[in-house]
Structures are given as C-alpha cells and as structure tokens.
C-alpha cells in the first residue's frame, strides 16, 4: 500500500506497526555515474525484523 503524505515520514509513524516507511529518496552522487540512491527508511525492528525487511526491499528494487 502506498501512502502519499505532505509531511516527512517520522520514525514514530512506524512504532508498533508492521509497515515500513520511506520518507525521502534522493540520488546518491557519491556513487559511480550518480547511480546510487539514498533512502530514509523507518520501521519497527521488533515487529518487522531487520534481515527480513532488507531482503524484501532488495526484491522490490530488483523488479
């Protein structure tokens, strides 16, 4: 589910929640050919789990 907001996502939004929020996506100019991404990501690590979330994010990026 995509949630469009006019304010920046805060980490408090992810507290006690299974969802993971991405607040900002920026081009990472420090990477070769400026092909990197900087993401501000928040999630409740107790509810979601860091390793599972990393795998799911990578799977989405590879689609």
Automatic annotation (TrEMBL):
Q: Superkingdom of the source?
A: Eukaryota
Q: Which SUPFAM superfamilies match?
A: Glyceraldehyde-3-phosphate dehydrogenase-like, C-terminal domain
PANTHER family from the UniProt entry = ASPARTATE-SEMIALDEHYDE DEHYDROGENASE, DEHYDROGENASE, PUTATIVE-RELATED
Under what name is this protein listed?
A: Uncharacterized protein
Organism taxonomic ancestry: Eukaryota, Viridiplantae, Chlorophyta, Mamiellophyceae, Mamiellales
